[in-house]
Design goal:
alpha+beta, hydrolase, Jelly Rolls, Immunoglobulin-like, seven-stranded antiparallel β-sheet
Length: about 900
C-alpha cells in the first residue's frame, strides 16, 4: 500500500489481486486450456461455455477462442473488434480515454489536466477524482449498452494514465503527464490506476474480488517524450542508468503496486527495437522481471511503423508477427486483422501463439463483467446520475483550487473586492479551450476565468478585452466577439433569444431533425465526442441522444437584430462545412471538410431597427467538431487598443494568457512561430501576448498575470516586472471559479510546480537527446526561473524539529523522519511538505537530489502539525549500476532535506547508510 503522505509502502506480492489469473496466464496457458477442453468442440453449436459463470475466466476465454476461425481471431486482436454473430459476440472497441475525466464520449465532468492535478501534490484528492472518473465511465458504458451502442469511447478499457517523464518543457504532450519527477509521477499514477480499476486506495485490494471496475493503461512504454514530429522514426539509446533511474520506475510501480491491467507501447524504437514490439521491454522487463500478466497494446498504428518507418522488417505480416511474438496482444489499427492470417500461413507465427494472446484479451473483458448478467456485476449498478453530478462538479472545483500555483506575490494579491473597476485582458480569459487541455469530455457548464472573476466579485465592475491572438500568425476565430443572444431571435415576433437549431443524423441536413431547440449563441466545440451536451448550453441531443458522434449536421435559422446602423463584419467559423445566408442570400460558402476550425467573414451594411433573416448550415464529418457565429460591430476599435483603454480605465488589471491545447499537443499539423507540430521551439510567452503584457504594465496599474498552460514558460520579464503571477494550468470545468476565488482571497492557493520553470535564455539540451544530464531539478546545475516544488501562499509556514529515529541504517532498514510545521500567518492555508534525499559525496554520477516524500497539510493560523515520512534505503536510495546490471545502494552519507520546494530547504539532517 502507499501512505497518503506520498511515502511508498509496497504491497506484498501475495496480496495482489486475481491470483488465479496470474497462475493461469503464463505464456502457453491458452494452448494448454484449449487442449484440456475437447468436450467444448464436441458440443452443439448453440452451447456457449464462455457464458458459464461456474467456470474460471481462463476456461471461458479459451473456449470462446477455440470456436473462432483464424480470420476472426486476428480481427479480435484489433481495437475495433467486430461482432461475431454466430457466437453471440457483440462488437467491442477497446479505445477509450480518461486522462482527466471520461473523454470523447459526450457530457462528462472535466477535471484539471493531468499536469494540473500533479501540481496539487495531493494523493488522497487524486484517489477521489479517479474514483469519480471511473464511476462516470461505468455509468456511461452501461447507458450505451442499453441503447445497443458498442462504439469507440463507449467501453470499459481506458488508455490512461500517461506516466512518461516530462523531461523537456518543449514537449507538447507533457501536459498529459504528472511532471518531471519519477516519484511524484509514481504516486499520482498509482492513485489514478487504483481509482479507475476499483481498488481501495489504502489497502490496494480490489473493492470487488471478482470484477474489475475498468482497465487502466500505463502509457507510453517506454522512453517517450517527443519530439512529436519524429516519434514514428526515432531510435532512443539512453544510458541504462537513465533508463532505470528515470524512465522506468513509474511503470514498474504501476505494475507492482497498482496492478495496472494494461500497458501501451510507444511509437519510437528503444535500443533498435520498436517499443510496441520490443523483446527487451515487453518480455524481459515487463513480464519476466516485473511479473506483469495483463495485456499489452500498441499505440495507434505503431505496428505500421515497425515496417514502414522503422524498417525493422520488410512487410506488414512480419511486423504483426514480430509484435505478437514479443508480447503485444492488442493492435490499435488494422495491421493484425489484415495481416496476421497471412503471417500464420507463411509460418511467421503459429495460430497457437495467436490463441494465447487472444485468450488474454478475452480474460480481460470477462473480468470486467462483459459476459455476465449485469445484476451479478457490482459496477454495473452505478447509476447514470453520477455523470456530471453536483458532487463531481464540486470535486472538479476542489482539484482546480488545489492545482493553482502562486509563483510570485509582491503584495498585490489577494485583490480587494472594494476596487471600483477591474480590467481583464488577454487571449485565454474567456476561452473555454484554456480550461480543457487535450483528451477531454464535454462539460455541462464550463466556467471560464473571466466568468469566474466576475462571479467571485459581483460588486466589482469587470471590463474585458481580449487584446491579441494567442500566437502570431494564427487565424484565430475566437478573437471575434460572439453575436450576443439579445441580437438574435428564432422567428419574427418571438420573445425568445437565440436561433432555432435543427439537428440531423446525417451530413446533408436531410430528413426529419432528431432535435429541435433554441440555441442562444452559436459557439460549440466537441472533441471527437457526441454533441449530447455542448460547451455553451445544456441540453440533450434528442431522444436517446440521437445525434451521432460524427456525420451530423445542424441548421440554425432566425433573425438578426443589429443594435446600431453601420457596416458589420459577420464571421462564421467551422470544422468542417458551413454556409451562411443573410436575407436569403448566400454570403459565405465553405461546404467541405476542414482539418481545423476555419473562419471566413463578410462585411454588410445593416440598419438598426430592422430584422434580417439569417441562416447558418453546418456539417461535421469526423473527429473534432466546432462552429461559431460572431461579428465586429460598427466603429469597433482594434482589439489591442481596446485592451489598453480597458486597462487605463481600471484600478487593477488581470492579464490572462499563456497557451491552450490548440497550439501545444499531440502531433499537430499546424505550426506557428515558437511551435512546431504540437511541440514548442521557444519556451517564452508568445510574442503577441508579451507585447500586450508590457503595454498593460506601462499604464502603471497593478497587474496580476494568470497563466493557462500545460508546460513551463520562460517568463523572465514577468518575474521581474509583474507583481503577481498565478499558474492555472488547464484547470477543467470549474477552473474559472477556482481562479476567481484565489485572486480575491476566498481561496488560499497552495499548489506546487511539478516541473522546473527555466529562464527564457537557458540553453536547454537538444530536444531529441534523452540523456538526463542538465534536465529537470534532479540533474540541472543552473539557476531555474522557478524551481520544482515551488509555490507560495497568502500565509507563511515555519519548520522545526526535524529528526530521524536512527542516524545510521542498513539497506533494508526503515528510517522514520519527522518534522513540525507551523502556520505562522493570519490566514488558513495549505503547505506541501517535501522530503528530498541527496548524496553528500556520490560515488558515481547520479541525481543531485530526489523527491522521496510529500504531504499536503491544511493548517489554521497558529496551528502546528508533526509530519512523518518513511525512508528505506534499498527503495529510496537505489541507483542503477550499469556494470553490475542491477540496482544498488551506495554506502555513505546522505542528506535528508525537508522544505517547501526543491530549492527552499528549511531543514536537513545527515543519514549514514551502510549496505553491509
Amino acid at each position: 500500500m502507499h501512505a497518503n503522505n506520498g511515502t511508498v509502502r509496497h504491497a506484498p506480492a501475495s496480496a495482489r489481486v486475481h491470483g488465479l489469473r496470474r497462475r493461469m496466464l503464463a505464456r502457453g496457458c491458452a494452448l494448454a486450456l484449449l487442449v484440456a477442453l475437447p468436450a467444448v468442440h464436441a458440443q452443439a453449436d448453440d452451447a456457449r461455455p464462455w457464458l458459464d459463470t461456474s467456470l474460471s475466466f481462463e476456461e471461458r476465454a479459451a473456449a470462446l477462442v477455440s470456436r473462432m476461425t483464424l480470420e476472426e481471431k486476428a480481427a479480435q486482436m484489433q481495437n475495433d473488434s467486430p461482432a461475431i454473430e454466430r457466437l453471440g459476440l457483440p462488437a467491442y472497441d477497446w479505445w477509450n480515454e480518461a486522462l482527466h475525466g471520461v473523454a470523447r464520449a459526450g457530457g462528462a465532468t472535466v477535471f484539471p489536466q493531468a499536469i494540473g492535478m500533479a501540481a496539487s501534490f495531493d494523493v488522497p484528492l487524486m484517489d477521489q477524482v479517479s474514483a469519480a472518473i471511473s464511476d462516470e465511465a461505468r455509468a456511461k458504458h452501461h447507458d450505451f449498452l442499453r441503447k445497443g451502442e458498442h462504439g469507440r469511447y463507449q467501453g470499459l478499457t481506458f488508455w490512461s494514465p500517461n506516466i512518461n517523464i516530462f523531461r523537456d518543457p518543449r514537449w507538447g504532450r507533457g501536459q498529459e503527464t504528472y511532471g518531471e519527477d519519477p516519484f511524484l509521477t509514481t504516486r499520482m499514477g498509482v492513485s489514478f490506476v487504483r481509482g479507475l480499476q476499483g481498488m481501495d486506495p489504502q489497502t490496494g485490494q480490489p473493492l470487488d474480488p471478482k470484477y474489475r471496475k475498468l482497465d487502466a493503461t500505463a502509457k507510453h512504454f517506454a522512453v517517450h517524450s517527443g519530439p512529436e514530429a519524429d516519434r514514428h522514426t526515432f531510435d532512443v539509446h539512453p544510458s541504462k542508468q537513465d533508463l532505470y533511474d528515470t524512465y522506468l520506475p513509474a511503470f514498474e510501480s504501476l505494475v507492482k503496486e497498482a496492478d495496472v491491467y494494461a500497458v501501451m507501447g510507444a511509437y519510437n524504437r528503444v535500443y533498435g527495437e520498436s517499443a510496441s514490439g520490443s523483446k527487451f521491454l515487453l518480455l524481459d522487463t515487463l513480464r519476466r522481471d516485473w511479473g506483469f500478466d495483463g495485456y499489452v497494446m500498441s499505440d495507434c498504428w505503431a505496428i505500421v511503423d515497425i515496417w514502414k518507418n522503422h524498417k525493422i522488417v520488410e512487410t506488414p505480416e512480419e511486423a504483426a508477427a514480430l509484435a505478437v511474438k514479443n508480447g503485444t496482444e492488442l493492435n490499435c489499427g488494422s495491421t493484425y486483422a489484415d495481416h496476421l492470417p497471412v503471417a500464420v500461413k507463411k509460418g511467421l507465427i503459429s495460430e497457437a501463439e495467436l490463441d494465447d494472446a487472444l485468450t488474454r484479451l478475452f480474460v480481460a473483458r470477462m473480468e470486467l463483467g462483459m459476459f455476465d448478467p449485469p445484476e451479478q456485476v457490482r459496477w454495473a449498478q452505478v447509476p447514470y446520475s453520477v455523470n456530471q453530478s453536483a458532487e463531481h462538479d464540486a470535486l472538479a472545483r476542489k482539484m482546480a483550487q488545489e492545482s493553482l500555483v502562486l509563483l510570485k506575490n509582491d503584495g498585490v494579491l489577494p485583490l480587494s473586492k472594494d476596487i471600483r473597476r477591474l480590467a481583464v485582458v488577454g487571449p485565454t480569459a474567456d476561452d473555454t479551450m484554456a480550461l480543457l487541455g487535450n483528451y477531454y469530455g464535454t462539460p455541462a457548464d464550463p466556467v471560464t476565468i473571466l466568468r469566474g472573476i466576475r462571479e467571485a466579485a459581483p460588486g466589482v465592475d469587470v471590463v474585458y478585452a481580449r487584446g491579441v491572438d494567442l500566437v502570431e500568425g494564427r487565424d484565430d476565430p475566437a478573437a471575434t466577439p460572439l453575436i450576443e443572444p439579445q441580437y438574435l431571435r428564432p422567428e419574427a415576433g418571438s420573445t425568445e433569444r437565440g436561433l432555432r437549431g435543427e439537428y440531423f443524423r446525417n451530413k446533408d441536413l436531410s430528413g426529419t431533425p432528431v432535435l429541435v431547440r433554441v440555441d442562444q449563441q452559436i459557439a460549440f466545440r466537441w472533441d471527437r465526442g457526441s454533441p449530447t451536451d455542448n460547451l455553451m448550453a445544456r441540453g440533450e441531443a434528442g431522444p436517446d441522444n440521437a445525434v451521432p458522434n460524427d456525420g451530423f449536421s445542424i441548421r440554425w435559422t432566425g433573425q438578426l437584430l443589429p443594435p446600431v446602423s453601420g457596416r458589420y463584419r459577420i464571421e462564421a467559423a467551422a470544422n468542417d462545412g458551413m454556409r451562411l445566408y443573410v436575407d436569403g442570400k448566400l454570403v459565405l460558402d465553405h461546404w467541405e471538410d476542414a482539418e481545423r476550425l476555419r473562419a471566413d467573414s463578410v462585411s454588410l451594411d445593416l440598419e438598426a431597427g430592422r430584422a434580417y433573416d439569417i441562416r447558418l448550415d453546418y456539417y461535421e464529418n469526423e473527429r473534432d467538431a466546432a462552429v461559431r457565429l460572431a461579428w465586429d460591430r460598427p466603429g469597433a476599435k482594434p482589439p489591442f487598443e481596446t485592451a489598453l483603454e480597458a486597462a487605463n480605465s481600471a484600478d487593477a488589471v488581470v492579464f490572462v494568457g499563456g497557451l491552450t491545447g490548440d497550439v501545444e499537443g499531440e502531433e499537430m499539423k499546424v505550426d506557428y512561430p515558437g511551435f512546431a507540430g504540437g511541440d514548442r521551439t521557444d519556451i517564452r510567452l508568445p510574442a503577441t501576448q508579451q507585447k500586450l503584457l508590457e503595454a498593460v504594465h506601462a499604464t502603471g496599474k497593478p497587474v496580476v498575470m494568470v497563466l493557462t498552460t500545460g508546460s513551463a514558460l520562460g517568463i523572465d520579464w514577468a518575474r521581474r516586472n509583474v507583481p503577481g503571477i498565478l499558474v492555472a494550468w488547464y484547470p477543467g470545468q470549474r477552473g474559472g471559479t477556482a481562479v476567481g476565488e484565489a485572486l480575491f482571497g476566498d481561496y488560499n492557493p497552495g499548489g506546487r510546480l511539478p516541473v522546473t520553470f527555466y529562464s527564457a535564455d537557458e540553453k536547454l539540451p537538444p530536444f531529441d537527446d534523452y540523456a538526463m544530464k542538465e534536465r529537470t531539478y534532479r540533474y540541472f546545475t543552473g539557476q531555474p526561473l522557478f524551481p520544482f516544488g515551488h509555490g507560495l501562499s497568502y500565509t507563511s509556514f515555519g519548520y522545526s524539529g526535524l529528526k530521524l529515529d536512527r542516524k545510521r541504517a542498513g539497506a533494508g532498514d526503515e528510517v522514520t523522519v519527522s518534522v513540525t510545521v507551523k502556520n505562522q500567518g493570519k490566514r488558513a492555508g495549505d503547505e506541501v511538505v517535501q522530503l528530498y534525499l541527496a548524496p553528500v559525496k556520490p560515488q558515481r554520477e547520479r541525481a543531485l537530489k530526489e523527491l522521496r516524500g510529500f504531504q499536503r497539510v491544511h493548517l489554521q493560523p497558529g496551528e502546528s502539525r508533526t509530519v512523518t515520512f518513511s525512508i528505506v534505503p534499498e527503495r529510496d536510495l537505489r541507483v542503477y549500476d550499469e556494470a553490475a546490471g542491477r540496482y544498488t545502494v551506495d554506502p555513505g552519507r546522505y542528506e535528508v532535506q525537508v522544505g517547501a520546494s526543491s530549492a527552499d530547504i528549511r531543514a536537513s539532517v545527515p543519514l549514514e547508510v551502510a549496505t553491509r
